[in-house]
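ok so i was messing around last nite and threw this chain in just to see what happens. nothing serious, just curious
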Amino acid sequence: MIEDRFESIRSFVVVAQRLSFVEAADTLRVDPSTLSRRIQRLEETLGVRLFNRNTRRVVLTEAGAIYFERCLDILARLDEADATISSLSGEPRGLLHVTLPVTFGQRHIAPALPEFLTLYPQINVDISFSDRFVDVLEENVDVAIRIGKLRDSQLIARRLAPNRRVLCASPDYLNHYGYPKKPKDLEKHNCLIFSLLATGDTWHLSCGDKQVVVPIQGRIRSDNAEALYRAALNGCGIALLATFIVGEDLKCGRLLTILDEWTSPETDIFAVFAPGRYIPSKIQAFVDFLVQRFRGVPYWD
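result:
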């Protein structure tokens, strides 16, 4: 009975966060009709309607909004209790929800998971790959990997590694179209554009005290850095890419750097997680593992 009630509360919270039964069902990995029945039973038990819903939208009622706040507090206290007991037990355990940026996650964290799971046999990992901004607090994520400037001052952040970016192209492209001698020359080249770049269709470069903003244009634009990397390898243009993507290709000459004296602003790669009086040992173990793995000069550099 207690387990059923907890399941109902958990289901209600996820629906309230997503404001979509379909998205919530996907998160909980249940059928939408099953989720709908859970919420209906909960409403019948409480004697109030928690959501106003039609075919297009789901909205919390006034009672639902109040209940949502109380349920969040209950789940937070339960997580704290779990963390306290887990820390006393000495061995990290439980299900760890992690969200990763697609390219960095697939290239540098996914390959490390077998080692992590061997070190911590009581931890299971649920991984989501996405380049969208994931709200750690709202989406019940234990650890998120973020690249660049952090927006969430309320979260705890651990720096994992620097994120260096370089201008690069394939030897075939440069032999055919020539090597840029100065930043302004980039305006005449086919540049591979990352559509999620905060600076838009410009590259910001610096050389000592000199700073320039270069407008760029090109035939390929993508919100996926891996796609731009593949295009650069195949001679489609010049790209501004992170060394965690192109490090190996630079070492073996498949890609060549250009305008080496000009650099793009360096950012950092972080692991972020929610603050609390007690940090669950599963979170602490995972973050410590990543810090150790990427310490010093990253292996891709």
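not much to say yet. The chain is about 40% helix and 25% strand.
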